[in-house]
Amino acid sequence: MKCISRQFLDTVAQFNKYDKQARTFGTDHELFLSEIHLIEWIGKRNGGYITEIAKEMNITKGAVSKTVKKLQEKGYVLKTNDSSNKLKVLLQLTEKGNVAFNEHRNYHVHLDQLVEDSLKNCSDKELSMIYSFLCAMEDKCK
Questions:
Q1: Which domains does the chain have, with CATH numbers?
Q2: Is the pTM here over 0.70, yes or no?
Q3: Are the beta carbons of 96 and 27 closer than 8 angstroms?
Q4: Which of 25, 27, 63, 137 could form a disulfide with 103 if both were Cys (CB 3.0 to 4.6 A apart)?
Q5: Residues 6+ apart with CB under 8 A from 81
Q6: Is 52 exposed, middle or buried (0-12, 13-18, 19+ CB in 10 A)?
Q7: Dist. CA 120–CA 64, nearest whole Å
Q8: φ, ψ for residue 121 (rounded to 5)?
Q9: Which tens digits make up the pLDDT trace of 70-99?
């Protein structure tokens, strides 16, 4: 059991190191996790407001505003006044933001392929056990 525990922790640490690397996602700037996740949120919904983003992502409006400002300066996000409510500011992706959004989706396809390649020799029973283990670990870490 200790070997499995240690290997699991080492694997999680290695994956975190891999996943947390800033990437360009097909653009001219490196984007950090908080930035690409905000781009992903806006891209999936074809726009949004700071308040709803903060609520759904469970972060402060200040954190969203700060990240939006960075993304706006880099040319990924555009702020426009909502035509139905002039007090609200609608966030939308620019063309560059859409490139990053689509490349981020491709990144997830790549990760899915890594998992599939790593598990290709497992039986359905083994896959079920791995899935159950991961779900149990997630539940215990909440």
A1: 2-140 (1.10.10.10)
A2: yes
A3: yes
A4: 25
A5: 88, 89, 90
A6: middle
A7: 39
A8: -95, 5
A9: 999 999 999 998 888 878 889 999 999 999
